[in-house]
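Example record

The entry below shows one chain as it appears in the dataset: sequence first, then structure tokens.
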Amino acid sequence: MILKPSDAGMDEAALARLDASVQADIDAGLHYGASLLVARGGNVVHRANLGTVAPNRPAASDDRYLLMSMSKAFTAVMVLRAIEEHRFRLDTRVDEVLPGFGYGGKEEATIQQLLCHTAGVPTALVPPPVPLTAVGDLARKAKAINRLKAVYKPGTRCAYTSGTGYDALGQILVETDPKRRSFNRIAKEELFDPLGMHATSFGLRVDDPKRVPVSFTRANEAPTSSLIGRTLNDWMGPDGELPAGGAFAEIDDLLLFTEALIGRSKNGYQLLSPKMFDLARRNHTGDLKLEAIPPLERFAMLRQALGTTSIFQFVAAARGARGGAASQEKFPDFPANFTLLGGYVRGAGQYLTPVGLTASPNALAAVGGASTGWVIDTERDLTFIFLSAGFVEGFAHLRRLSRLADLAIAAVKD
């Protein structure tokens, strides 16, 4: 259902300021285009499609964006559903359900630690020695993840894993699936189809006319841009399985998911039990700070990205290596605040957060590196979804999401 902002207790002029802020970034050459949506009480009150997603192609509501790490929310929910089916527990050691994982200091790592990035697994989009051309080969990646050594004792620190941790979770779903399905099929049959998310999938035809290509504006080009573009545009096809970041979706499908996540599915399909959702939405990293662990990459350009936490920060660091401002930015000190839902909870205090500085303490967010994000503020019954074409790397993307979330929240009048 679509409501006028005033009928949903929202300020239309404030929503216009949200659009203007996104348009200002486009005009400044920071990215090319974007689709955004604001909902209140599950009803759409505002949407906008701004700029372009490819040459001579204006942004549209039915564009299918690569969600990047927003995909982790899908994988996390499927893992939690498997737990509710008693296939394993949060405290199950990963090695019990992913044979061979218990090696090199990872022996005691648990499912829960993988979900909230405290398992000690090194970060990599694709674990060596697997080449980037095999970014969608989940079985091959899982075998390589098993051979990785821990970079810290599981449970003692928190460092975001761009691909490795959630790809391991995806393989666990395959290993424990009673129907012996592939990861992509599990996602389609257990998540997307039941919720009516018919324009969402892990993997997508490279030539799909609605696929939004990964792109870089001139302001954001870096030595690694071409390599990242080829990895995500050319080597992520319809069969690609990247549980950590390989989902494609239309913006309205994401509203179906966020509504179902908070127990308000349009067709009554229960995604998670209320008790599981209540448990999963909490901060599961306690007082741990988000740390920068040097990423594992085969390519020298990416190895320059020390002090970053995920693939969307690699380019910023690489730009810094050639004298850009990114090299001068210190990794900020802020709490990890990871939930078990593939994202973050706001928490209390003032620090860098993609959830928004004015969001309620229990507001939730999921972030896709350099380009996407959603926020659910259940206290205000507000959902904000943002999808963009053109990478904005590093902390600039987190700051952008925080700014836009605050602008959306500022439109709430009651």
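Notes for this example: Strands lie at 33-40, 43-54, 57-58, 65-66, 201-202, 247-249, 344-345, 364-368, 372-377, 382-389. The longest helix spans residues 12-27.
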